[in-house]
Amino acid sequence: MKNVLSVLIATTALAAPAMAEDLAVVGSWSSLPLHNQYEAPFWSKTLPEASGGTINVELTTHNQMSLGLGDVYPLLGQGVYDVAMTVADYAVADAPELEGLDVPLLALTADEARAMVDAARPMVADIYRDRFNSHVLAIAPYPPQVVFCNAEISSLADLEGLKVRASGRMTAKLLEALGAEGVNVSFSEVPGALQNGVVDCAVTGAGSGYSAGWWEVSTHLLPIPLGGWDSVVTAINMDRWNSLNADTQALITEQVATGFEDPAWASAQNALVNDIACLTGNGECPSGEARAMTLVDVSPADFARARDILTGEVLPEWAERAGGDWATRWNASVGKVVGVTIN
Predict the structure, then answer these.
(1) CA angle 146, 170, 323 (to 5 degrees)
(2) Which stretch of 7-16, 163-172, 238-247 has the lowest confidence by average pLDDT?
(3) I need a surface site. Which of 62, 167, 188, 220 has the fewest CB within 10 A?
(4) Is residue 255 part of a domain?
């Protein structure tokens, strides 16, 4: 009898379906192309289908949840949800060392930006593990962060004395070193701030500004990557990650790389060209109606000045603020890739 029961139990176990995993996922800005074109399809369709139905996803976004941007990763670490993604710069108040991921002006192409991200990834993984009890799954880009102005400008020097919304702390430090006044305004509040004169200019991705209608309240576009590439980090709560079996971990790792991260990077370079065309009317706009912002040329002198201030003032100040061995680690990884050393 015992043998019969053993056979029945074993047979039942073999026939039972694999335990389904339910993931609560919080995406980045719901209105922007990164979420609509890559995040939402991946989490809603690509990953569940690749898992054969063993991974179920409940997807929302941080703005739909009305989360404070600085709360996204701390709440992830506490297990309020399983997976979250947003701009790394939103977390630098809790992790100043994270500013070294997305340094302005060092990457002018998507390939250069990805090389920087790949070099920084071991550091980012350590930061998210130690600061946010999380495991990094992916790092994807917004397009380069350029400057929208509701003021007449003809060069980088014209930012001096203006109030400028920065896209991150290091960008704010750079703007201040250039003689501008860095102002902290959330992305969703920028159109009103530009319209009402709270800020004269604001930094964001060209595509983000187009999608959010910043062209309605700004006149001039300065296409210098003054805010870097606004890297978006996707991470999973470490306890939840460790609860998954090795096969599920491997599936998620492989799928998030090929089904989300790689496609997002592949489109990043052309996105800037297309987005500038959409904002200024200089070229064809594949996203909708072209607008008529004035495109401001970036001179070699402008770029050289900004780069000198970055390497001579802003990066050393970050190294001091981050403390520890972060400057040494940055020099040996990101700095080596871009040819910059923090002294």
Answers:
(1) 160
(2) 7-16
(3) 188
(4) yes
We report the CATH number of the domain holding residue 221 as 3.40.190.10
List beta partners, residue 236: 83, 135
Q: Facing residues of 17 across strands?
A: none
Q: Render pLDDT for 233-243 as a digit per residue (tens, 0 to 9).
A: 999 999 999 99
- Per-residue confidence band for 5, with pLDDT thresholds at 50, 70 and 90: very low
**Are 203 and 99 in the same domain?**
no
Number of domain units in the chain: 2
pLDDT at 7: 39
User: Which residues span the domain enclosing 166?
Assistant: 145-228+284-298
Burial of 238 (0-12, 13-18, 19+ CB in 10 A): middle
Helix ranges restricted to H, 37-141: 40-41, 47-50, 72-77, 110-132
The listed range with the strongest mean pLDDT (53-57, 163-167, 272-276) is 53-57
Domain presence at residue 275? no
Residue 340 in any domain: the answer is: no
Whether 23 and 124 map to the same domain: the answer is yes
Q: Is residue 271 part of a domain?
A: no
DSSP string computed for 259-270: IIIHHHHHTHHH
Tokens of 139: 């790092």
Q: Three-state SS for 130?
A: helix
The 3-state DSSP class for residue 232 equals strand
The model's pLDDT over 256-283, given as tens digits with 9 standing for 90+, comes to: 999 999 999 998 878 888 999 999 999 9
DSSP labels for 152-205? --SSGGGGTT-EEE-SSHHHHHHHHHTT-EEE---GGGHHHHHHHTS-SEEEEE
Q: Which CATH number do you get for residue 38? A: 3.40.190.170
Same domain, 56 and 152: no
Beta-bridge partners for 59: 25
Phi/psi region, residue 163 (left: phi>0; alpha: psi -120 to 50; beta: rest), is beta
User: In whole numbers, what is the pLDDT of the chain averaged over residues?
Assistant: 91
